[in-house]
Structure formats: C-alpha cells, structure tokens
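Intended use. Records like the one below are meant for learning the mapping from a protein sequence to its folded structure. Do not use them to infer anything beyond what is encoded.
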Amino acid sequence: MAAYVSDALNRMKEFWERTSVSQRVLIGGLTVSVVVVFFALIWWLNQPDYKVLYSNLYPEDASAVVQQLQKDKIDYKLENNGTTIMVPLDQVYDLRLSIAGSGVLHGQGLGFEIFDQVKVGQTDFVQRINYQRALQGELARTIAEFPQVERARVHLVLPHKTLFIEDQAPPSASVVLKLAEGQKELDDVQIQGIVNLVTLSVEGMDKERISVASTDGKVLYSPKGEDSIDGMTTTQMEHKLKVQSDLERRIEEMLLPLYGPGRVIAKVNADLDFSQKTIHSETYDPASAVVRSEQRSEETTSGQANLESGVPEPNFRGDGVGGALSQQQATRETRTTNYEIDKTEQSIVTPVGQVDRMTVAVIVDGTYTADEAGETVFTPRSQEEIDRVKQLVSNAVGLDTVRGDSIEVTSISFGGPEVEIEPNLMEMILDYAQRLGKPFLNGLLVFLFLIMVVRPVVLALIRPKTEIEGVEGVAGLPEGAGRLAIEEGEEEEDEAWDALRKIDDIRAHAIQLSEQNMDGAMAIIKSWLKQPEGI
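Structure written out for the chain above:
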C-alpha cells in the first residue's frame, strides 16, 4: 500500500514539474474552486429549510411574534423589510397554532383588546377615551382588509351624550387610506362600501358627516349638503350612459350578421326623467249608484170642531142640527235615501329614470365593386334596404313616435375595403430577424464561449502530455535509414490492416446475403462440396 501511495505521489510530482506556470495556476484555481464548492455544498446541506410563518405583518404584530420566538429560543429569519418571518420547516405548523393561541396577533393599531386588562380606579372619561380608541382601531383593521387598501387610519369624534335632544351633537368620522402598490384609486362602489361600514358601525353616524381621503392628499369622499346634487348627478349620468350603450350594443349585435364587423355604427341619445312624481286621483262613477241607507217617516192628524157656539159645551158630541160641525184630517210622509257612488282612488309613483325621448342614428357601410380600370367604386344601400334596417332598429329599441322619438339610417362609405399589403423582401427579412435574432445571438454566444474559453483550456491541458510523449517516441527511434525502414514497415502494416478490413466487410456482406436467401446459399455450399480437390 505504501509503495502504491509513493508511486502515485511520484507521478503527481513528475506531472507537476512538467507543467508550465499558467497551467499550475489553472490547476490550483480549479482545485481551490472544487474544494470551496464542496464545503459550501456541505454547509448548505446542513442548513435547515426555512418556510414562511407569517407574511405581510404589521410592525406591531411582527414585533410580538419575534419576541415570542426569542422567548421560545427558536431560530427565525426576517425578510421583506421585516414583514415576513421564516422559521424551520418542521416547526411551521406547530408555531402557527402556538402563536394563534397566545393571541399576540391583533393587526395594526389598538382594538378592543385594550379592555382585556381592566385597571382598577379608571374614571368614566378614561373608559370613554379607550372605547373611542378601540373603535377607531377596529374600523381601521376592517378597512385594511380590503385588497386595494394597504393601511387605514380612522379618526372619530364622539360627542358626550346629554339629557336634552336639542343639545346633542352628531358624531363625525375621517378616514385616511394608503392604497396598495399599483392601485391608483378606488371606484365609487368601494368608497361607498367604506362609508357604509363606518356609518353602520358608529351609533348615530350619518354618511354626510364622513370624509375619506388618501395619503397623497386626494379627497375620495366628502360630505354633501342637503341641497347638493353632485352625487345624484354622477349617478344619473352613469345610468344614462349605461342605457345608451346597451341600446347601441343591441343594435350593432343585431346588424352584425347582416353586414359584418366594423361596418355598422349606432348611436343613441336617450333623455331620461329622474324626477320622482306621486300622482293621487279619485274617480266617481254616477252610473253605478247603490242605495246605502233609507229613512222613512209618516204622520197622520184628524179632529172636529163646533163653529156656531162660541162657548164649548162639555157634552157636545159633534152632531148638531145646524150642521156647524167641522172635521180636520192631515197626513204627512218624509223619506230620506242615501246613495253610495262608486269611487276609485289611485296613488301612482312614477319610476325614476324613465325615458322621455329617444333619438337613434345608424350608419351602414355600402358595397364596393371594381370598375374596368380596377378602381374601387362605392355603391350605397338601396332605399328599400334602408327602410328595412330602420324598421328593425325601431322594433329593437322600442321606438315610440307618440313621445317624439326619431330614427335616422343612412349609408356612407367607411373608406373602402381593407387591402392587404404584401410585405416586401426587406420587411420579411426584418421580421425573421426580430423573431430569430435573439435565439441566434444566444447560440452564437455559446459557440464563442466554447471556442474562445473552453477549447483553449482543454488544449492547454492535453497538449503538454502529447508533446512529451511525441518527443520521447522520436528520441527512441534510430536515425537515418533505420527510421526510413520503420516508416516503410508502418506503411505495409497499414496496407495489411486495410486488407483485413475489406475481408471483414466481404464476410459480413456474404452473411447478410445468406440470411436473405438461405436456399441459394445452401446450393452454393453443396456445389463447393461436390467439386474435386485441386480445383
């Protein structure tokens, strides 16, 4: 074993002595690089794999988590400016459950956890301030959950409650938002969602006392007075544009199969009535009278009197001889009839945004034909076709001439058909150069690296050994005629090797032919066996 080691050392020493300075530097550099890479791989393999424990943490939460990890003596790494915490892979899920159970993650600001530790002796004023701080923090955390919002601050003004309603001041709120990276602004629906959240989360809050702004000073939502119509005007305009675009899209989709894409233009102007009206009406029908109640009374009066005697007699019976007897009899009847007349009461609320008047304009492209000179000639649509399109559009959008709607359809040239321009040779070359230039350059760079870097290194390692062996071989050859004889012998040896290779090729060809035609091969062998010796 010792002899083998000493022999290997001697060979290495001889090889080192035969190399030049540049080769020694190259070999030393490669050896050092291999050793460094080897130890680096060993160190990297022994390092634990880290995985994200929490990401996008607020500074308060990140500080609490780090303190918890330091307390438990667990290795961790911070990334993304401290917002991401990474721990060993085999402890990720256990640590998540442990930290979630400890309750150290609260989000930005201070929330209702401020009441988890109630101090004895706190005044009512301190309690109210803590409640206001907690409510502000909880609202800020909820708003920050929006994907378009990175951070949020909420400031509330909660007046002290009084016993008299006329002395009670309404609350107000201000919200400041820091939008997420790449988010330029919030749309109206998202802003309205934030306003509704604050309105319904604070007792007695009115949306007209809420202001929303961004950190760059842009006002996103501001209170509006009772007489302001800014918000309503914006909503009305959006609704009007939506109605018009829907009608235009309906017209173009209907005419698209008839004339093709890009050959029809439709524009609609709709006058909408956004006033809300309530109409009350009462209608009486005298022909449908019905007896509701009837009252009837009859009175009858009768009597007799003696007209000849001035003094009434007690025993007068009314049957004197002179016929001075007077009789009186009266009858009176009273009747009252109450009739119920049919009455209809209506309370009609007109819908907001009703169409008062609509005008429609449609432009249809004509046809194009080539004349004898080869030029394109435009031919407008016929009047019959224009009338048919007008009828179709009128029925599609619900045109009503009674309310003053109008429609206009005309045929105008759109500039002629698109003529495909065939690219010339130079444009084709430039196109292929743009598409294939980058892969070609990459291949060229790889080729140059192999030729100019790898090839010289390989040749530098191989050339010394080859030159040394060649010098040693030439030094052992005889001089003069002896060397010429050796060269001639080498040429004869080469010719013998060529003959052997030809014989092997003939043999392989014969075997291939015999496999393809076995019967013919057997017949040739039999003929050879039948031939007498010496032939």
